[in-house]
Amino acid sequence: MASHLPFLSSFPKTLPPPPPPPLPLPPRKPQTRRRSPSSVAASSAAAAPLPDDDAGAGPAAPTRGDRFLGRQLATEAAARVLAPEDADRRRRRKEKRRAMARRPSGLASCYGCGAPLQTAEEAAPGYVHPDTYDLKKRHHQLRTVLCGRCKLLSHGHMVTAVGGHGGYPGGKQFVSAQQLREQLAYLRHEKALIVKLVDVVDFNGSFLARVRDFAGANPIILVVTKVDLLPRDTDLNCIGDWVVDSVVKKKLNVLSVHLTSSKSLVGITGVISEIQQEKKGRDVYILGSANVGKSAFISALLRTMAYKDPVAAAAQKYKPIQSAVPGTTLGPIQIEAFLGGGKLYDTPGVHLHHRQAAVIHADDLPSLAPQSRLKGRCFPANDTDVELSGNSLFWAGLVRIDVVKALPRTRLTFYGPKKLNINMVPTTEADQFYKTEVGVTLTPPTGKERAEGWAGLQGIRELKIKYEERDRPACDIAISGLGWICVEPSGVPSSSPDNNIEEEYNGGELHLTVHVPKPVEVFVRSPLPVGKAASQWYRYQELTEEEEELRPKWHY
Question: Which residues does the annotated region (Disordered) include (predicted)?
């Protein structure tokens, strides 16, 4: 067999052992998201075994859940810190949207008072006969329409329309004083030039101390109106310095101060020059308290500008209505007055609850408006020997002054409407005198019917007035919405020249008690330098160059 199968000789005699079975494969790891090298390094460091002496000393790496929780806590903490600021920011944005919603729309309104035109209620402001309305609308002439109320006002009728806090008792009331104030809320968000008007006869009562609530950060030009009503021989240089000093004390930043008269056109040219220089394409808004003379000022403005500006000349035909009724203007009135762009707006007067006009009947309002130049009425008069101590003085039915302590030569000088009577009686008889004479000789209130509904003089203010010099007034007592009373410690000329004046001035105080209706305000201020003698006792303040540069300049 070996000879026939020679290849068998190459095989081994015994078979080798079988190979070992293959090792099992390790289980496949689930796929994970690729991590950054830094996180891998951190994980490796955390997984590495620590020596026995340092076991548990190193911080553990935060897990994904820890990191998520940390982000949530940081977000909540930031929200708690920023929440008040965000809420305040949202509130301001909401107020701005509300204010801008009251901006004058394109609706047709009466050019005399600014009330929207309507044909539904005949007694309400803005009423126009339907036939007239349709005709004017067809010819696109609604901006040339005068409402029925303005026609009555132009003929001397006393037609009120404002009620509410600061409005007027009696008469018809269609809009509240608060609604008129809300119409001006959008001004603080506009880029405009504000011309603020103040009545020189009622300077403190008509000043609008919080005018920035309406004007915002817009520049303000202060215009003092009705200077033609000041007593004769008044030095306007003294008046201008007094006004600027008062404005600085009230901390109101204004561009300049102008003394004007809408009747005699004093100072109007200076205001026009200032407006043209400062408006810079912006709209101009005339702002002020009720019955301060805004409509009359606009008429004087247009009349003066008409000589050189054809746009102002055309605007004279449709100028706002002037009336002695406070609250004549009931909405912003747009006037095309400038040739170089920008519009002029007459705005509703801001009705202040602390003025006399807010407490008397609407029919008595004309008695509060002076119609001619003021003339001081002195008590006691120079030709009498009556002393003020122990007496009470009644200024119509609106003011009562009890003189508790005064010098023998103390004098009170009243500046206000000539129609209002002044009566002096002993203080012991003052209560009974007021009860019997209010509505009869003490008017307003006029008539027994109004006197019965009259609340009386409930507001009482006790004044202790200090004086330093006998040759100048000690102060003014200003009654909001009426006028002022000049207090002169030694105003009455002495009948005995040898009298020891120094003995009269021991104590240095005058004691007065002022009674007014609630909520009429009483202001004590530095004396307004009126009359010929004022230029002798008025003193200009000594200022440094820096203070002089910061003070606003005045013009007339």
Answer: 1-65, 83-103
